Amino acid sequence: MMLKVGELAQRTGLTVRTLHHYDSIGLLTPSARSDSGYRLYQRDDIARLHQIQALRRFGMSLADIGTTLAKPDNSIAALVAQQLAALDQQIEQATRLRAQLEQLQRTIASGEEPELASWLTTLELMTMYDKYFSKEELQRLPFYQHNARHSKEWADLVAQVRALMDGAIPADSEQAQTLAHHWMVMLERDTAANPGFVLRINAMLAQEASVQQQTGITPEVSEYVMRAFGAFKLAIYANYLDADELRHMRAHQSTRAHEWPALIAAVREQMDAGTAPTDPLAQQLSRQWFGLFRDLVGDGPDTLQKIRHAHEKEPVLLTGTWMDDTMITFMRDAMASLQQRQT
Q: Over the stretch 245-255, which tens digit does the pLDDT of each residue have?
């Protein structure tokens, strides 16, 4: 079966002019012509047209398409596979967008007034999250699941922190400490208490200027919150430590603080994988853990006992650390196993 140029144009949705142009530049030359001179396209021509249009959808220029199709290893099967993969990605994106729209619809139906700007910001951030999280992880990341109430909570909290900064209120003020504690509680909630998630959220905030602009969480805001949160914890430790111990902790609080998030995420990963405390990898992590801990609080046995007592009496000290009692026990067991092996 052969098709005239008009018939091919009608069947494919292209214009006759486009097909003529493809012929004139040697991209798609019909296999035959009728006695009257009409272009006639057969099966192989149509298969080539499919390749041309598929490559056009991938954003390739006509010149590059010609070069690609001229290669001897060109495979229509591989091209179809690429199209299927692209369609799968589009379907996935459309599914996520549908979920966002359904959430908006539920918000409206419940009588709430959605913050449209906040909702649109969430949509704009969707592609950014894709750079840092897998599809499966995004399904478990509360930050990614649009929630109008949570979005407003974050916008209000960032605005309150900004107001303190603009007013030159010190980070160790009671106001700043209260906001910082609330910040860390919300951050744990919206990262599903997963230290690996918060590690990548922090990376996204540090590396993506557009995210900083949309959320208002700049490096300056983050640094202010962390100083305020450090002051919040020191105020609690002050009830258990003497002046010299507190002075040591204050002096060392921020020197290696940046090492904790990655270490905590690594420990949680090993725990989730079922690694035993006796495993050399767990022991190595415990060595790093207690090295950082002793750098922070010192080596005095009395001080270490006071710190343990403070944690027993003040569970709030674990807020915003992505640690829990099981993790601390895991690290203690790993260190005990290491020490036993070394004796």
A: 999 999 998 88
Residue 267 vs residues 5, 57, 68, 139: alpha-carbon distances, Å: 66, 45, 48, 22
Distance of CA 266 to CAs 38, 136, 294, 335, Å?
69, 19, 19, 16
**Contact at 8 Å (CB) between 230 and 253?**
yes
- Does the model's pTM come out above 0.90? no
pLDDT at 179: 97
Distance between CA atoms of residues 88 and 95, nearest Å: 10
For 67, the token pair is: 């070069």
Neighbours of 280 (CB within 10 A): 12
Assess contact for 147 and 189: CB atoms under 8 A. no
Rounded Cα distance between 77 and 83, Å, is: 10
Q: Quick one: the chain helix, strand, coil %, rounded to 5?
A: 70, 0, 25
**Predicted pLDDT at 189:** 92
Q: What is the pLDDT of residues 111-130, one digit of tens each?
A: 665 555 555 555 556 667 77
